[in-house]
Amino acid sequence: QAPLVASGGGLVQAGGSLKISCGSSGGNFRGYAVGWFRQPPGQERELVAGINWNGAESDYADSVKGRFTISRDDVKNKFYLQMNSLKPDDTATYFCNFGLTHTAMQPLGPWGQGTQVTVSS
Predict the structure, then answer these.
(1) Mean per-residue pLDDT, 90-106
(2) Per-residue model confidence (pLDDT) at position 25
(3) How far is residue 113's CA from residue 96's CA, in Å, rounded to a whole number?
(4) How high does pLDDT run on average in the chain?
(5) What pairing do the DSSP bridges indicate for beta strands 18-23 and 78-83?
C-alpha cells in the first residue's frame, strides 16, 4: 500500500492558524479511523488527533485539545487538521495514517514524508 500523503505545512507565527491535508494516491481509507501524528526534532512520533471511521467521534492529545480539529471527507478521500492558536511547541513534522481505532491508534499504513509545520515566536 502506498503511504498517505500529508500536505499544507508551512511557516506561521505564534497565534496563527494552518490547515493541513492528507490524501491517498491509491485506494481509500473508508471504514478505518484516521489520525494525525507529529514528530518534533529529536523526539518520538506522537498521536495528536484521531477520528473514527464515520467521523462521529474524535480524540485529541491534551497538548492540542481546544486548538486543533480533525475532520474527514470520504467523498474526496481526504482528511484534515485545522490548527489554531499555534505555539512554537507545535513545530514538528506532521504525518497522517489510518488504523482500527481513533484512540491510541496503531497505524496500519507505511509512513510517508509528512509535512513540516514551523511556528515562530
Answers:
(1) 96
(2) 77
(3) 10
(4) 95
(5) antiparallel
